[in-house]
Amino acid sequence: MTNRIARVGLTAKRGLTAAASVLADLAAWLQARGVTPVFDTETARLAGVTGTTVSREDLPRQCDLIVVLGGDGTLIGMADRIAASGADVPILGVNYGSLGFLTEITLPELHGELESALAGRAQFTARAMLIARTVRDGGVFAEHMVLNDIVITKAALSRMIEIAVTVDEAPVTTVRADGLIIASPTGSTAYNLAAGGPIVHPAVDAILLTPIAPHTLTNRPIVIPASSTVRVQSVMDEQDEVFVTFDGQAGFPLRPSDRVEIRRAARPIRVVHSAKRTYFELLREKLKWGGGAPSPLREI
């Protein structure tokens, strides 16, 4: 980052009272360095502070960097807002959650990483976003930007559903399953992982298609180029209940003629990366793959 950071957005998971004192101290720390803290309205109320406040939707347009305190869901919600705003604002995620693949900065690391960001020394990873357009009755019904995934799934008590999948106009398959996940590499460690999909390094330019509990063993996850356009449509009648959700933040029921088109967004999101651990160290830590580095291979 070459431009000076003059305004830092501060936002926290809703109701995260444990972060209140940290937020107040962080605001004072920034002000002492000539940087203006900007709170979203709910977070300001949580921290009991006054000063510059805006809505969560407006925060990306008002800041040069956004610090998120919470879990991955809180960071994902802000990433989606940044993408929707068209701003190019990096995120520094501080882990208050239980897993934290994205909010990888720990609380003791916060001031050091923020100091690096203010000095222009922070390390960033670019995380690809996906754009999902729902087409209904010949027009665009809704458009969403997502960091993790688009999920098409049946209602809790519904029967199995069928989802026709095409990639760049070429028919791929009709998935007979409880649903389908279309994920970015970042989303590979979210619902995709729980559904048996592969872990994909965030630097890999790809889109993942993972069936949820497929009823045919030959319906397997597939990784396709990120330059592809994916079109999915549920093969359903009026009695079926099929839903689409976007990063778990929004969603709605689909109609029989609805089609969801997914492609990579033009601009990625930049996330501050901890200088103290690699992506593989993060995987080992979060997925409990064992301690220290593997032993070097011996020549035979």
SSE layout and pairing:
Blueprint: E1 7-12, H1 20-31, E2 36-40, H2 41-47, E3 52-54, E4 65-70, H3 72-85, E5 91-95, H4 110-118, E6 123-127, E7 130-136, E8 139-146, E9 149-154, E10 161-167, E11 170-177, E12 179-183, H5 191-194, E13 206-212, E14 222-225, E15 230-235, E16 242-246, E17 250-253, E18 259-264, E19 269-273, H6 279-286
Parallel strand pairs: 1-2, 1-4, 2-3, 4-5
Antiparallel strand pairs: 6-19, 7-8, 7-18, 9-12, 9-16, 10-11, 10-15, 12-13, 13-14, 15-18, 16-17
Overall description:
With 300 residues, the chain is α+β, with helices and mostly antiparallel strands. The protein folds into two domains: 7-128 and 269-286, Probable inorganic polyphosphate/atp-NAD kinase, domain 1 (Rossmann fold, 3-Layer(aba) Sandwich); 130-264, Probable inorganic polyphosphate/atp-NAD kinase, domain 2 (Tumour Suppressor Smad4, Sandwich), CATH 2.60.200.30. It is built from six helices and 19 strands. The chain has helices at 20-31, 41-47, 72-85, 110-118, 191-194, 279-286, and strands spanning 7-12, 36-40, 52-54, 65-70, 91-95, 123-127, 130-136, 139-146, 149-154, 161-167, 170-177, 179-183, 206-212, 222-225, 230-235, 242-246, 250-253, 259-264, 269-273. The strands form four sheets. It has a six-stranded antiparallel sheet with strand order 8-7-18-15-10-11. β4, α3 and β5 form a beta-alpha-beta unit. The relative contact order is 0.14. Residues 295-300 have low confidence and may be disordered.
